[in-house]
Each structure stands twice: as structure tokens, then as C-alpha cells.
């Protein structure tokens, strides 16, 4: 390391020691180490991630969709494959089914934000150009998430929606979707049974 040399005015030149991190305007090593430790904890999968393990696997899906509150639902069948991605930080679900008589594919990414202390979910499919994002909490058996969606049929956006995952047994769970702009009318229900 190069040392600065200072002229004291007496004709003698003395070597100055290099400035410490704090003197250079940086942070002391102990403070940096503490920050790194906090960052490691914040980015590591924890018990809230482990709680999502139930959803991993291949599933047979029975789908009901309501086009109007209280109407007769359209029914269809589908499949879903759910697996861990990003070293156990997120779940990815690939859904294949039918929508309005046409093949339908969708993808969910679900995880727990350690910093915000909230579950977060994003959804995309091949009948939309929008990304649906929602977040919420879990009590261990029920995961409730809220967000805003866009509807390509009506042309409306920022529709307040609620998603509720209910674990029925180790081999079954149900996903329900509600439209908060229509008094929480149920718009969709998917019953998952493990294959």
C-alpha cells in the first residue's frame, strides 16, 4: 500500500499512515460486517418459505369461472406443476387448462418478502398482456392476497381483487378469486388434487 509523505516544514519528511475507512468517509469494518449479516438473513429462505412446501407437486385442477355474480359458472379441467426456483426462494406454478373453449396457459410466481414481511404473488397468462400482482398474509392454513387486475374483455384496469388459498388436506387445496369492486363476488375457484 502506498503511504502519503508529508513535509513538516522542518526539512524532515514523515510518512503518514493510510486513512481508515471511517476517516475516508466510508463505514468502519464492524459496521459493514453487521450490514452484510443483516443482508444475509434478509435474503435467505426462512420458515415462511418452508410453509409453501404443500403446494409443490403435480396437480389435477377443476376450474369454475363466474362471468356475472350469482350466475352459472363455466367449468373446465386443467393441470398444474409447481416447483421451487431460485434456490428455494420462490414457487413457480405452470398451469395448463381451457378458457372460453380455447387452450389456456398461465404462470404464477409466489414467495415471501422477508423485508416487507408479506407473501407476494405475480400471475401472467397467454390471454393477457398484463401482470397481476398481489400480496398478503397467511395463518398457516389460509393464504389471503390482495391486488389490482386488468380485464381484457371489459377494458377495465385497477380492479381490486382478492385471492384466497385454502389448504384442505396434504393432497388438496382450493384457490378462490373475489372481485372487491362487486361486493367480493366470487369470480373463480380452482380445486387442486395432487396426482
Strand order of the largest sheet: 3-4-5-6-7-8-9-10-11-12
Give the CATH superfamily: Calycin beta-barrel core domain
The tally of domains stands at 1
Structural class of the helices, strands and pairings? mainly beta
Q: Rg, please?
A: 26 Å
Quaternary form: single chain
Give me the CATH architecture, please: Beta Barrel
Order of helices and strands: EEHHEEEEEEEEEE
Number of helical regions: 2
The percent of residues in helical segments reads under 10%
**Overall mean confidence score, pLDDT:** 89
**In percent, how much strand structure appears in the residues?**
over 45%
Categorize the overall geometry. Answer: globular
State the low-pLDDT regions, or none.
Answer: none
CATH class descriptor name: Mainly Beta
Total count of strands: 12
Reported for the largest beta sheet, the result is:
10 strands, antiparallel, barrel
Separation, N- and C-terminal Cα atoms: 64 Å
CATH topology: Lipocalin
Report on this structure.
The structure is a single chain. The protein has helices at residues 29-43, 47-50; strands at residues 4-7, 13-16, 57-65, 74-85, 90-99, 102-113, 118-125, 132-138, 142-149, 159-169, 172-179, 185-194. It is built from 2 helices and 12 strands, in the order ββααββββββββββ. The strands form 2 sheets. It has a 10-stranded antiparallel barrel. It has a two-stranded antiparallel ribbon with strand order 1-2. It has one domain (47-194): Lipocalin. It is globular. By secondary structure, it is mainly beta. β5 (90-99) and β6 (102-113) form a beta hairpin.
